[in-house]
Design brief:
By secondary structure, the chain is an alpha/beta fold. Among the domains are: 237 residues, Ribonuclease Inhibitor (Leucine-rich repeat, LRR (right-handed beta-alpha superhelix), Alpha-Beta Horseshoe); 105 residues, Alpha-Beta Horseshoe (Leucine-rich repeat, LRR (right-handed beta-alpha superhelix)); 154 residues, Alpha-Beta Horseshoe (Leucine-rich repeat, LRR (right-handed beta-alpha superhelix)), CATH 3.80.10.10; 86 residues, Leucine-rich repeat, LRR (right-handed beta-alpha superhelix) (Alpha-Beta Horseshoe), CATH 3.80.10.10; 31 residues. The protein contains eleven helices and 54 strands. It has a 22-stranded mixed β-sheet, covered by helices on one side. The protein has a nine-stranded parallel β-sheet with strand order 35-37-39-41-43-47-49-50-52, with no helix packed on it. The chain has a four-stranded parallel β-sheet with strand order 24-26-28-30, with no helix packed on it. The protein starts with a helix and ends with a helix. 43% of the residues are buried. The N terminus and C terminus are likely disordered.
């Protein structure tokens, strides 16, 4: 979101006035009541405070606690302000800000003890993270609240309607954060907003980023708020504005409906509705990123407007005639509206205009000199992303041509200006921003640039600037960003170039091939930067020692920097919270274990380091790496590659065919999507471990995979593979994992024995696994799999396999875990399973097995009935379901086919063959007892039994 400075100033005035009205400092001698003190302690106990922000909440006088304010006369707690103050430090990368600041957010549960604070009128919990919990209903009992701010605090679910009970509210902020994929952006939904109509005193209302399910209900409720001054509905997925006949919120001074879908549906009107004309007190209006196409006469009647954003609507030149009467306009954003130079003269009457944004319009050719009088009055001018060409206009090259020299920010990137970097630029004494990225500027940077003492951002990358960089640039003590990359600069950059740059946050020198960074080994700059780009700059031969003092570094790009050195151990200190690291195309040596503790690393490239030929193991698992796998990794002579549990996308690079020495390839749990590569089996025949699970591979399992006879661990689970299981899998001979001394730090996870299990270091050497679960495989279980006598874990669950279990499955003598659940298997469960002495987990649920469950040995210990649920034709002691007289269940079954049918017939033959001899022996035994005892009672019992038979 672009925060308009004038709107922020306006809001600050209102909030400041409100704050003075009812809050007191906690530096007085006021003492809080015991009741309030206890209530606050209960509230604190429910919170998660990892950074100890509430460490001052001790002692008896809560009026002195941070964030707690008391009335000076009564000692009652009237205000709690726990918003996180440092959150919006870097609006360009909101997700990165969340990652870097997450440890400082308050979270946990909100205690209803707040209700005991009877005089609480101000509550601010914004910019924290409460993990999508719903706003507690007890908030509706805080009857004295006049200020409630829950924006950007990570709440979720539906907003409780009983907030409507807070009839005294003047400020209500429920908006979300802008630009967050995860993190503390609110996940609110609103099904009904009728409760809003009760807020007769409400002045400031923010519902931005909320999903509003009933737009009509929203506007009808808002129309009942006569005191409303500011309304923020940015990003609420609104698709229509109401057609009011009467507007009751005419006191409105700020309206933001930026980034909705108004006018984007064919049946909806895309004109600004006439009732806007009644908002005569409106000072700030944001209509940006909608689809209005006709300004009509409405805008010209809003004579109080000072800030207007109509970006990305496509109004066209006709808009400017409507704006020409807005004499109070200070800020105007016309981005993306098909504006031509020929109509800009209509803005000549806007004598108060200070900010003009013309980015992404259809401005072509030379800037007409007739516009000089307009541009000379501006403090901010944005001409970026247009087809403007020729020399820079006179008012830029020579500010003395303007009566007043107001220019503070100048944006002209992605244009076709072809001119020297003007010497006269240094005469713009107030200049804070120069952005001429990707233009056609040439020549040298004048040494007089040091006169721009207010300069904060110098962005002149991707031009044709040459010569040496003047050391006077080091005198720009307010400089926060220096980007001179992709030019033709030569010479040496020394310590003098950074002499007074203590505020520098971003440093980009990349792609100036003849530029040399030459600083002493004991030099440590005064700045702390977030970003450093030095690709194709001569930084080496030593690894820069000064980097080790950069404690907030987020991005380090130092590719092709002529470094021939060891990777220093201290690198782990600066990569701890780093998201991007590129040290490729150097001559680095040594291990990369220093990167193991990096918690947020999303992109890393160490490829094409000639002295990394000895690198044998690369483990970047369980980070947040994004994008595609660098094809340059295929240039390494690596044996172990672990990239699992990241966010990698795309395909496996074809260059991986060169990794013929690779023994372990783990790409599991990413977002890779491709047809299953046949070349893996043809080229990577040294593989012992292959994990591609939990990706989006599709197609049949290629027979070429069977060429890797050394495979001991194959996990293809959780993909979209179809077809049958290759019978040639029975040819995997496995053997013994090699390289026991090189498994340090390696971790592999597999879902076995019904739970995810992690194996570390040399534990990996002991495992033999085949996991094809959660795919779309069909056909039978190949009987050839019973040749894998080394196998310990077999998981074929959640496919569509049919047929029966191979009767020789008992040959898998080492089997510890067997999962065949959620298939379409049928037939009997082979008795040979009872011979598996190591079997500790077996799941056969949700198939169509029938007959008795075998007993004996380890099977007796597997007495969990859930292992057999979903097989209605099974019977036996383990599931407490009796079998019928011939040893099968009572349910009629279809005759099974193949080997297992023969097994069933053989079992039945032996069953019936054993009945006759058993009966005869038993009968003779009874007769013998009768003869010996001659007991009439026994004879009587026998006679009764005979009659029943």
């Amino acid at each position: 979101m672009n925060y308009h400075p004038f709107l922020i100033l306006l809001l600050l005035v209102f909030v400041t006035n409100l704050d003075v009205g009812f809050t007191k400092t906690h530096h007085s001698n006021t003492t809080c009541s015991e009741n309030d003190q206890k209530a606050l302690i209960e509230f604190k106990n429910g919170l998660i405070d990892n950074s100890n922000r509430l460490s001052s909440w001790t002692g008896q006088n809560c009026c002195k606690w941070d964030g707690v304010f008391c009335d000076e006369k009564t000692g009652n707690v009237v205000k709690i302000d726990l918003h996180y103050k440092n959150y919006l430090l870097d609006g360009e990368y909101p997700q990165r800000v969340f990652d870097n600041h997450a440890k400082n957010f308050l979270g946990g549960e909100l205690s209803p003890s707040l209700v005991k604070l009877k005089h609480l009128s101000y509550l601010d919990l914004s910019y924290n993270y409460f993990s999508s919990i719903q706003i507690p209903p007890f908030f509706g009992l805080l009857m004295n609240l006049r200020f409630l701010n829950l924006s950007c605090a990570g709440f979720g679910g539906y907003i409780p309607k009983n907030l409507g009970n807070l009839s005294r509210l003047e400020h209500l902020y429920l908006g979300g954060c802008y630009g967050y994929v995860i993190g503390p952006g609110n996940d609110f939904r609103v099904d009904s907003l009728s409760w809003i109509s009760k807020f007769s005193s409400l002045k400031f209302f923010d519902l931005s980023q909320l999903v509003i399910e009933d737009t009509k209900d929203l506007w009808n409720s808002i129309n009942m708020l006569p005191s409303l001054l500011s309304l923020n509905l940015e990003g609420c997925y609104l698709n229509i504005l109401p057609s009011f006949t009467q507007v009751n919120f005419t006191s409105l001074s700020s309206l933001n409906i930026h980034h909705n879908a108004i006018g984007m549906s064919f049946e909806n009107s895309s004109i600004i509705p006439p009732w806007f004309s009644n908002l005569t007190r409106l000072m700030n209006l944001d209509l940006g990123q909608n689809n209005f196409d006709d300004p009509t006469n409405v805008l010209e009647k809003l004579s109080s407007l000072r800030v207007l954003d109509v970006s990305n609507n496509g109004f066209g030149d006709s808009l400017l005639s409507s704006l020409s009467k807005l004499n109070n306009l200070v800020y105007l954003d016309l981005l993306g509206n098909d504006i031509h130079f020929s109509s800009l003269h209509l803005l000549g009457n806007l004598t108060s205009l200070s900010v003009l944004k013309l980015r992404y319009n259809v401005l072509k050719g030379l800037i007409p000199e007739g516009l000089t009088s307009i541009f000379c009055r501006l403090s901010v001018l944005d001409l970026s992303d247009n087809e403007i060409s020729g020399l820079l206009p006179t008012f830029i090259r020579d500010p003395s041509s303007c009566l007043e020299n107001r220019l503070k920010e100048l944006y002209m990137g992605n244009t076709k200006f072809s001119d020297f970097f003007p010497e006269g630029m240094s005469m713009h004494k107030n200049l804070e921003v120069i952005d001429s990225t990707n233009s056609l500027l040439y020549g040298e940077i004048p040494s007089s640039i040091s006169k721009l003492s207010n300069l904060r951002f110098l962005r002149i990358s991707n031009n044709k600037l040459n010569g040496s960089i003047p050391s006077s640039i080091g005198q720009l003590s307010n400089l926060e960003e220096l980007d001179i990359s992709e030019n033709l600069f030569t010479g040496i950059v020394s310590e003098l170039h950074f002499a007074k740059l203590s505020k520098l946050m971003k440093l980009h020198l990349s792609k100036n091939k003849n530029l040399v960074l030459n600083v002493s080994s004991n030099w440590y700059p005064t700045f702390q930067v977030k970003e450093i780009g030095m690709t194709s700059v001569n930084v080496g031969p030593n690894f820069p020692q000064w980097l080790q003092k950069q404690s907030i570094l987020d991005t380090l790009i130092m590719s092709d920097a002529n470094i021939t050195d060891m990777i220093p151990n201290w690198l782990s200190n600066i990569t701890l919270f780093m998201t991007t690291l590129d040290l490729s195309v150097n001559k680095l040596v040594g291990g990369i274990s220093v990167l193991c503790d990096a918690q947020f690393l999303k992109l890393i490239d160490l490829s094409k380091n000639l002295n990394l030929e000895e690198l044998r193991s690369l483990n970047l698992a369980d980070n947040s790496l994004e994008g595609e796998i660098p094809s340059s990794l295929g240039d390494l002579t690596i044996r172990f590659l672990h990239l699992q549990k990241n966010n990698l996308q795309g395909k496996i690079p074809l260059s991986f065919q060169n990794l013929t020495w690779l023994e372990r390839l783990d790409l599991g749990e990413n977002k890779l999507k491709d047809v299953f590569p046949t070349w893996i089996g043809e080229k990577l025949q040294s593989l012992e471990l292959l994990r591609l699970n939990s990706n989006q591979f599709y197609g049949v399992i290629p027979l070429e995979l069977c060429q890797i006879s050394s495979l001991c661990w194959l996990n293809l689970a959780g993909n979209n593979l179809y077809g049958t299981i290759p019978s040639c899998f029975g040819n995997f001979s496995c053997g013994t994992f090699r390289g026991p001394g090189e498994v340090f730090g390696q971790r592999v996870e597999s879902f076995m024995k019904g739970i995810p299990l992690e194996y570390v270091g040399e534990q990996i050497l002991l495992l033999r696994i085949l996991d094809l679960s959660e795919n779309k495989l069909v056909g039978g279980i190949p009987k050839e799999l019973t040749k894998l006598v080394y196998l310990q874990y077999l998981n074929l669950s959640r496919n569509s396999l049919n047929g029966s279990i191979p009767k020789k499955i008992g040959d898998l003598k080492q089997l510890e875990s067997l999962d065949l659940s959620h298939n379409k298997l049928s037939g009997s469960i082979p008795q040979s399973l009872a011979s598996l002495n190591y079997l500790s987990y077996m799941n056969l649920s949700y198939n169509n097995f029938s007959g008795p469950i075998p007993t004996g040995n380890q099977l007796q210990s597997l007495d969990d009935q859930s292992f057999y649920v979903g097989n209605p034709r099974l019977c036996g002691i383990l599931i407490k379901k009796s079998c019928n007289g011939n040893g099968t269940s009572h349910v009629n079954e279809q005759t099974p086919q193949g080997d297992d049918h023969d097994q069933d017939v053989d079992e039945h033959k032996w069953f019936y063959a054993g009945i006759a001899p058993g009966f005869c022996v038993g009968f003779l035994g009874v007769l013998f007892i009768l003869y010996k005892t001659r007991n009439r009672g026994v004879v009587h019992v026998f006679q009764c039994m005979a009659r029943r038979l």
